[in-house]
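Lab manual, section 2.4: Encoding a predicted structure.

Procedure: take the sequence of the chain (608 residues), apply the prediction step described in section 2.3, and record the output as structure tokens. A sample record is shown.
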Amino acid sequence: MSCEPTRTPLAEEIDIPAMREKYRHERDKRIRREGQAQYVRPTGGVVEDYVTDPHTPVAPRAPMSEELDVVILGAGWSGIMAAYHLAKAGVTSFRNVDSAGDFGGVWYWNRYPGIQCDNESYIYLPLLEETGFMPSKKFSDGWEIQGYAKRIAETFGFADKALFHTQTNGLRWDESLGRWRVSTNCGDELLARFVIIASGVLNMPKLPGVPGLETFKGKMFHTARWDFSYTGGDYQNPVLDKLADKRVAIVGTGATSIQAVPHLGKYAQQLYVVQRTPSSVDERPNPPTDPQWVKSLQPGWQKARQANFHRAAMEAFLPGEEDLVCDIWTEIARNFAAEMAAEGWPQLSLEDYVAKREVVDYRVMERLRRRVEALVEDPATAEALKPYYRFLCKRPLSSDEYYPTFNRPNVELVDVSLTKGVERMTEKGFVANGKEYEVDCMIFASGFEVTSDLDRRWGIDTIEGRGGLSIYRHWADGPRTFHGVMTHGFPNQFYMGYIQGGLNASVTEQNGRQGYHIAHIISQALARGAKVVEPTQQAQDDYVSHFESMEIDVSSFAHECTPSYFNNEGEDKAKWRLFRAYGPGWDAFQKLLEDWRADDMPGLEFSN
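Recorded output:
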């Protein structure tokens, strides 16, 4: 079935200059001077410490002392893809270390009601052809994703290598040994030749630093540590029957909240949805996987689909290219391509190209605002739920149940945009817009530390390279790397994530290519008998200079966006900004790395 352009309001129906000003106004009224400091880490007290596992009992074990080739910090997608590529490269002496109780990362911790993938499973779940697995539907349930993460580890022989319920608290380079001393909260001392920091981007929950948080006498928890013993139900059967006599508030209206709110609205006596900035929420057709479609797939189908999705979400369709995914993530590219095709694919200047695509953006966002009007009965509530910003200012979402939930008599939207958040907590509830709301339970769907400073995100007390240099000081002003995966002064240490490299629309594909590149370097070092591998200062400086010279300046776009983790709460040029990418694109970056590997890796020093 072909994927057609969507029907969006005509450009003539939208006063774009006035709408642009409206976007700026909505942004400015939400900006807080504290930036990332408006959030705090859950470390016990008002809510459980973030390392406390509500899902799996902790089995006591004796401290370990061990030498091994590689320690991988993390067992989510980054850590899994690093381990997979190490195993494929013939490196077998490694361990994943994670504070969770099993593989999965954010999909281990996140078990809130309604949890599903919010982009297509056939793209998001890696290695489908390699494992022979096929998701049960377009947007997989969280339990299926976590189970598949574990399946990959079992299939490729590293499931038994992990140390779970183990929090790394120190990494120190020992020059005399040419190894990293890895210490943990279990008293372990691992002497690793190489360390891969694969913490992921959604690993550290954050709470809004609301005054009086500690005074509230009711129940509080973060959605990444959902308490089914309080709400009723469980991971795969979220019947929240214990909330029938409870007044509940959920703070936040991002990706988690739009999935959890329909369940809370169905079961709670009263639900308050506390919103600073609304998300854009499109329809969510989620059919079961068609067996006939599966039979029709040819070898290489997943890579082709991932590449198609990446071009749609981050770059542009090629002339005549079909949209294989056909959902909210690809709509702008699909509609833009249809316009270009109707005009015979004219050669446009960069300025004209950007302006033309911007109009498509405004039309799609207007369609999404009108969708709110069609589904939400109360006009004031509908207006507050409308997204006034550019398409990729916040994560695009989809749900068929979220907006209709606000038509329930027991559900109330509490818009806190004018006060830029909840004003304060009290013993009985919270204060918003000068009014106290009494609640029995406060749930924080406040997300994770994604683009904030490293010491807020990684949760590792000490990372010291040569001469005791702290990585937190070394990168205080942002990353300076070689290929986005190494840095001078920290030999044998590697990084995965959105760090000064190529950017792919699918985080698991990005993880996979980083894991492959890192595994190549490590396996080559081991094959050459080298104890230490490190980029030279000159090679690093040359790479950073090249990267920055090719980087596309998106600060003007970021300046128009409402505050979120995408721009570290409103910064135009956040040093860890999410969409900082190699300017010529993903394929060009992969070609750069491929050519470098074929040329015997110039700029790396291998030494004994």
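Check your result against the sample. The chain has a mean pLDDT of 93.
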